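Table 4 source record.
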Amino acid sequence: MFARIGQLARHLSRPLPHYAHPSAALATRPSISGTIMSSAAAATEDRGTRMIHTAGCIIIGDEVLGGKTVDTNSAHFAKYCFLLGMQLKRVEVIGDDEAEIGEATRRMSENYDFVVTRQVALLQSRSELPLSSPSDAQDRLGGTRDHGKTLSGHMLTKAYSGGIGPTHDDITYESIAKAFRLPLKLHDETVKRMKALSKPHPSQKNFSWDVPSPALDAKMRMARLPIDESRDIESQVLFVDESLWVPISVVNGNVHILPGIPRLFTQLLDGLKPLLVPRLESPEGEGVYRILFSTPMAESEVAGYLTMLAAEVESKGVKVGSYPRWGRKRNSVTLVGKDKEYMESLVPRIEKGVDGIRVEREEDADQSEDEEEGS
């Protein structure tokens, strides 16, 4: 027995073979880690270059959830996607919460080809707003030199919660960076453009770009972007409008962080379009078509016909819609799809089926209706 114990002790005291030694396991970890990182980088690159079919939108702001601000950006983005032929699959509104921003962004990045996050700017009338607010908007994002003009026909308050501005509650960059385990890096080109295109607020009479101050720190905060140092930086920071210093920050290949001020949001999306068109199903950027019909018949009267029509056209990727118009004598029927020639061939039959006419706008048929009532 003691002999066996001694034999076992001698066996255990022998040096481990190289493949079984802890140091060997450690030595293999960098290569495994490198493989994982390479795979992740490849997946990110793929998300940033593959064809775009689906889109998602995240609206960030406590003001929206609290009823203080009406979001207009998502409506614009829906039209933008429609015209380019992207299928907008989801719009989410979330509060200024780091965990929720991170979860929503990761999920949408995984599920959809093109994701936009927007922060909502609070809009008020001119009479309610301090005269300094246009400078505040420019201080944050703009390149306009005309302080006498409004943005998007509205004036802007300083409230910009959950955005990409200089205050403590502007947490989008930080939250998304943390969600994808990226550092926030001061982006030199953004700083350069900020200096060239923005002016200090009138209250900052002693402000200097060369003298450290809380105001300077706050401005630099807007130039700290989520950066994946393993990838080309130019693909992560897009300057699509030379009149604006603010970039579109691109994270994980397909998450695009834009400001929430409607005019700037629209301007940057328009500037982004040439980069998206080559990745769309239609190389010309042609989108989905909509044909509109006006009918005097009640929805219940045409429901059976429309149900039959919807089943017939489904295989062609065409959708049929029916929309009551309260307070008017006429309702609307729509065809939506990408096969324009096929849809056009259906027009005479649908006009007959709903006893209606094709119109460009819902209001077009109302004019003749009003004239008949007045005659």
